[in-house]
C-alpha cells in the first residue's frame, strides 16, 4: 500500500519514507511511486532516510518541495506545515505578533488575535492533523525498527520515540487531549480512543524517561535529537506541570534536575544574540535542538520562511508585525530589540489589524550569515534553522523554577545566568540585575525580551496566568484595539469539528460548542 496522504487518523496507512536535508541525514528520497512498506527498509541507508522523514515532518508539508503531494488533506499546503501552525498558535494569539491578511484560513486567522477561534477554524484543524501525521509516521518507523540488534537502528528507534513524544507534547499543550495511537496499533481502519490531558502528560514523561539514557550524547550530530534535547523537553513538561495537571501538581525540582544536565553540557551562549537566528546558525554554540532548513534541498513555506519573507518593513510581503506591548518591554539600549520602525515606514500603534504599515516589523530572523553573506542557493527559500531549544531558554527556565520553589538550584546562580544573557554582547547598557530584582514578573518580561518570535509566548502567558482574563491586556486581544478580557477556556484550543464528526470517541474541550 502506498502513502499519498494521511487523510484521517482513523485510517492508518503505510508509511512511505522520504528525506530532507538535515545535515548528515541528507540522502536521496525513496520513490513514493514504487516503494511499499515491505520494501522500504532494505538497506541501512533506507532506515536513515526514514528517520529523516520523521524530522522533516515538522518542516516540510509533503512529498515534493516546497509544496506538492501533501501529507494531509488541505486546500493550502504551503500554509499548513507543522511548525508554521505551532508558531501561529503560540505567537498570533499573544502580544508578540500580528498577521496582516484576513482571508487566510477561510477568513478565520484574525480569530487568533481576537481570541474568538472556533472548532470549525482551519488553523486548528491543520495543526491537529500535522501533530497526528507526525505521530503516525513515527509509529510506523518505531514498529519497523523494534527489536533490532543493530546499534544504529536502536538509536534511530529511540529518536523516533522522541519525535512522537514531542508531537504529542504539542497536542498536550495546544489541545489538551488527543487521539492515542502507538506502534501497537497496527495499520488498518479503526477509531482511536481519546487520551485525556493528565494521562497524556504521564505517557510523554514515561517515554522520555525511558529513552533518555539511550539517546545520543549532546551534539553528536547537528539536527538530531540527543540527551540534551530530551532533557529540555522534560524540563518544559515539568515547568508547565501545574497547567497540564492542575494546581498543586508542581514539578519544579524535576525541571531543575533536567536543566542542570543541559547547562553543564557542551553548550555556551553565542557571543552575539543574532547569531542564533541567521543563515549559519548551525554554527551557534547555543542551539540544543533545531528544525533545519536548506534553501536548495528542503524548501518549504514553513514558519522561518514566513517570518523572514513576510516581515513588514523589509521588502517582503508584509504579513507579520508586532504590537506596542512587546516593543515597550525593551529598554532603548537593549541590543536584543530588532525592530523595523518609522524610518522604514512602520508606525508603532495598530489601528487596523490588516494595515501592513501599522506595527513595527521584527528583523530578528534573517537569511544572511554571521559574516554578512547571502546564501547562494539560487532560490527564494531560506537556510536559517529554527532554534526549538537553546541555552538561553534553559537559563530562563532554571531561574523561574528556582523562584517557584524548586530545589537543586539557587537564586545566586539564577541571577548569574540572567546577567549572562543580558550582557552577552559585552554592552553594559541594559545592566545587571540583583537577586532582589529577580521576580516572576521580571522573568515573564525577560522571556519576552530574549525569546520573542521563537514560539513560546502563549505557553508562557498561560503559565503566568496572563493569557486570558483582564490581568494583562494587549492591542487587539478580545477583538478591540485597546484589548479586553477573553474567556478562561481559551487556554485550550477546540478539537476540530471534522475530526469529532468522523470519530465519536473524541470529546470537545469545555467552553466550545459541544464541550462540557
Briefly note the structural class of the backbone. Answer: mainly alpha
CATH class (first level) name: Mainly Alpha
CA-atom Rg in angstroms: 22 Å
State the domain count: 1
Report low-confidence residues grouped into runs of 5 or more.
Answer: 1-34
Q: How do the SSEs run, as a string of H and E? A: EHHHEHHHHEEEHHHHEHEHEEEHHHHH
- Count every beta strand, where a strand is a DSSP E run of 2 or more residues: 10
Summary?
With 516 residues, the chain is mostly helical. The protein has helices spanning 37-40, 44-56, 82-91, 104-107, 110-114, 122-145, 151-174, 197-211, 227-239, 241-245, 252-263, 303-309, 324-327, 391-403, 411-422, 440-451, 457-463, 497-502; strands spanning 11-12, 98-99, 178-179, 188-189, 194-195, 287-291, 320-321, 339-340, 361-362, 386-390. Helix 2 (44-56) runs antiparallel to helix 6 (122-145) and helix 14 runs antiparallel to helix 15 (411-422).
Amino acid at each position: 500500500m502506498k502513502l499519498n496522504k494521511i487523510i484521517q487518523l482513523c485510517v492508518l496507512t503505510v508509511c512511505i519514507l522520504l528525506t530532507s536535508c538535515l545535515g548528515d541525514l541528507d540522502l536521496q528520497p525513496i520513490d513514493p511511486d514504487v516503494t511499499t512498506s515491505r520494501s522500504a527498509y532494505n538497506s541501512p541507508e533506507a532506515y536513515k532516510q526514514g528517520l529523516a522523514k520523521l524530522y522533516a515532518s515538522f518542516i516540510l508539508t509533503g512529498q515534493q518541495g516546497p509544496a506538492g503531494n501533501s501529507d494531509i488533506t488541505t486546500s493550502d499546503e504551503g500554509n499548513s506545515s507543522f511548525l508554521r501552525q505551532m508558531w501561529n498558535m503560540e505567537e498570533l494569539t499573544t502580544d508578540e505578533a500580528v498577521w496582516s491578511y484576513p482571508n487566510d484560513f477561510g477568513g478565520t486567522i484574525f480569530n487568533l488575535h481576537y481570541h474568538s477561534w472556533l472548532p470549525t477554524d482551519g488553523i486548528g484543524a491543520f495543526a491537529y492533523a500535522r501533530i497526528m501525521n507526525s505521530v503516525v509516521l513515527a509509529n510506523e518507523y518505531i514498529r519497523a525498527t523494534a527489536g533490532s540488534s543493530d546499534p544504529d537502528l536502536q538509536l534511530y528507534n529511540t529518536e523516533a520515540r522522541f519525535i512522537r513524544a514531542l508531537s504529542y507534547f504539542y497536542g498536550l499543550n495546544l489541545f489538551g487531549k488527543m487521539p492515542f495511537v502507538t506502534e501497537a496499533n497496527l495499520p488498518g481502519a479503526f477509531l482511536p480512543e481519546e487520551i485525556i490531558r493528565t494521562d497524556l502528560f504521564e505517557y510523554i514523561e514515561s517515554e522520555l524517561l525511558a529513552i533518555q539514557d539511550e539517546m545520543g550524547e549532546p551534539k553528536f550530530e547537528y539536527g538530531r535529537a540527543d540527551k540534551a534535547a530530551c532533557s529540555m523537553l522534560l524540563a518544559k513538561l515539568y515547568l508547565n506541570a501545574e497547567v497540564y495537571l492542575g494546581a498543586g501538581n508542581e514539578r519544579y525540582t524535576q525541571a531543575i534536575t533536567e536543566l542542570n544536565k543541559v547547562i553543564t553540557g557542551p553548550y555556551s551562549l553565542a557571543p552575539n544574540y543574532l547569531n542564533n537566528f541567521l543563515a549559519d546558525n548551525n554554527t551557534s554554540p547555543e542551539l540544543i535542538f533545531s528544525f533545519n532548513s536548506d534553501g536548495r534541498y528542503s524548501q518549504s513555506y514553513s514558519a522561518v520562511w514566513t517570518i523572514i519573507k513576510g516581515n513588514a518593513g523589509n521588502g517582503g510581503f508584509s504579513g507579520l508585525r508586532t504590537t506596542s506591548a512587546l516593543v515597550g518591554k525593551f529598554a532603548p539600549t537593549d541590543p536584543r530589540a530588532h525592530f523595523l520602525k518609522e524610518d522604514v515606514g512602520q508606525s508603532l500603534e495598530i489601528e487596523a489589524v490588516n494595515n501592513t504599515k501599522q506595527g513595527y516589523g521584527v528583523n530578528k530572523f534573517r537569511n544572511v550569515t554571521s559574516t554578512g553573506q547571502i546564501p547562494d542557493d539560487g532560490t527564494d527559500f531560506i537556510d536559517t534553522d529554527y532554534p526549538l531549544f537553546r541555552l538561553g531558554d534553559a537559563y530562563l527556565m532554571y531561574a523561574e523554577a528556582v523562584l517557584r520553589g524548586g530545589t537543586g538550584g539557587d537564586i545566586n546562580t539564577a541571577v548569574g545566568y540572567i546577567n549572562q544573557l543580558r550582557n552577552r554582547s559585552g554592552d553594559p547598557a541594559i545592566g545587571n540585575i540583583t537577586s532582589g530584582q529577580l521576580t516572576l514578573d521580571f522573568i515573564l518580561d525577560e522571556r519576552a525580551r530574549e525569546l520573542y518570535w521563537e514560539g513560546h509566548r502563549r505557553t508562557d502567558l498561560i503559565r503566568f496566568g496572563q493569557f486570558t482574563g483582564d490581568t494583562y491586556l494587549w492591542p487587539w486581544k478580545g477583538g478591540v484595539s485597546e484589548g479586553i478580557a477573553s474567556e478562561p477556556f481559551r487556554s485550550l484550543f477546540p478539537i476540530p469539528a471534522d475530526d469529532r464528526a468522523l470519530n465519536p470517541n473524541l470529546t470537545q474541550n469545555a467552553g466550545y460548542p459541544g464541550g462540557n
